[in-house]
Automatic annotation (TrEMBL):
SUPFAM superfamilies: P-loop containing nucleoside triphosphate hydrolases (SSF52540). Keywords: ATP-binding, Nodulation, Nucleotide-binding, Transport. Belongs to the ABC transporter superfamily. This is ABC transporter.
Length: 260
């Protein structure tokens, strides 16, 4: 019997990004199967945002390959981009446009059919309907995060890249956003890559985790595997071990093996 393995939705091989003398991402390799949620974790400056920017084609890799939905992003990223979307607290929507105008702009950019209906739908899901006609620059941080998520979901993406999706949200709102994302992923089989500093969020949402340290893979596995391997209670403790140099990361192990 021949077993046909499905193409991963996201496949990254030996990815590297150098800014001048700073190696932001170094030999990063991972794959995310369709319908899975991968967490990209690491301390400040570990290379998460740089990786997401390369996946979106906003930054050109120094080396390495990226395939999204089986499409080589170096050659044909415009074939993949309409089926992708992202949210990031570092990318502000145009301030003077109202929330509705912003969503209309992105909806048209992504070629969404019946865009007005879709805006009403997603505005209700993300609870941004009460301020649809307010300027984006005049929203609170938490309201902006919800609008950013509404924009990220406007085209019902197959691949969703989320950089700190619940940043600035109060615990209650963050909780329903996580539930919404989980339901969205179940219903649509979307693939999600999530960069987060919230370890509870990672445990709840992620099937797999890549721990990044200084641009390199420190360790990887499901939250449960990592917690077990580190001999810890939860991902918070795993993260602290990595940050304080106590973990037994793959990178450290590999270096040891190469040296001996
Ligand atoms: N445009 C740039 N020019 C030079 N260096 C950069 C640039 N963007 C990022 N870097 C550096 O690359 C490294 C990785 O940064 P990146 O923003 O990807 O980290 P991050 O994991 O997203 O961090 P954080 O959790 O703080 O958001 C850092 O050392 C950062 O200073």
């Amino acid at each position: 019997m021949t077993v046909v393995l499905a193409t991963p939705s996201i496949e990254v091989k030996h990815l590297r990004k150098v800014y001048g003398e700073i190696v932001a991402v170094d030999d990063l390799t991972f794959a995310v199967p369709r319908g899975a949620v991968l967490g990209l974790l690491g301390g400040n400056g570990a290379g998460k945002t740089t990786t997401i920017a390369m996946l979106l084609g906003l930054l050109e890799p120094t080396a390495g390959d990226i395939h999204v939905l089986g499409i080589d992003m170096k050659k044909r990223r415009y074939a993949a981009l309409p089926r992708m979307n992202f949210s990031s607290p570092y990318v502000d929507l145009p301030h003077r446009l109202t929330v509705r105008q912003n969503l209309l702009f992105y909806g048209r950019l992504y070629g969404v059919r019946n865009v007005g209906k879709r805006i009403d739908e997603i505005a209700e899901h993300m609870q941004v309907a009460p301020f649809l006609d307010r300027q984006a620059g005049k929203l609170s941080a938490g309201q902006k995060t919800r609008v950013a998520l509404a924009k990220a979901l406007i085209n019902k993406p197959d691949v969703l890249l989320l950089d700190e999706p619940t940043a600035s949200l109060d615990p209650d709102t963050a909780d329903w956003v996580r539930t919404y994302l989980k339901d969205y992923q179940h219903e649509t089989h979307a693939t999600i890559l999530l960069a987060s500093h919230n370890m509870g969020e990672v445990e709840r949402l992620c099937d797999d985790v890549v721990l990044l340290q200084a641009g390199r893979v420190f360790d990887r596995g499901s939250p449960r595997e990592l917690i077990e391997r580190f001999g810890r209670e939860d991902m918070e403790e795993v993260f602290l071990d990595m940050a304080r140099g106590r973990g037994r990361g793959l990178d450290a192990l590999n270096r040891k093996e190469t040296a001996s």
